[in-house]
Amino acid sequence: xxxxxxxxxxxxxxxxxxxxxxxxxxxxxxxxxxxxxxxxxxxxxxxxxxxxxxxxxxxxxxxxxxxxxxxxxxxxxxxxxxxxxxxxxxxxxxxxxxxxxxxxxxxxxxxxxxxxxxxxxxxxx
Length: 125
Prior knowledge:
The chain is mainly alpha-helical and 125 residues long. It has one domain (30-118): 434 Repressor (Amino-terminal Domain) (Orthogonal Bundle). 49% of the residues lie in helices and 10% in strands. It has five helices and two strands, in the order H-H-H-H-H-E-E. It has a two-stranded antiparallel sheet. The radius of gyration is 23 Å and the shape is elongated.
């Protein structure tokens, strides 16, 4: 009986459980160099923030102009945060927009503990 040998570049098939299997994103992130990972994480934070603002605006059915009016910021500030284009907005503008969307608290994780922080109702310039 003539058995065919497996080519040396073919790995033996081991069953992988769903918990062991990496997602495409995990595989991609693992392949990044430290500098690429730093850029990726910064971009992801910007993306997550803009998605949060978009979701809250959609939930409340509020337009860019209306939110700008409520938050007392210019429509261009709201649009830039919403689109993820603006990277250097002030905390004051950020808090005003969150307040305008009805947010009252932020949660901050510190050493594994979640700490609620009140969003200031008014901030002095």
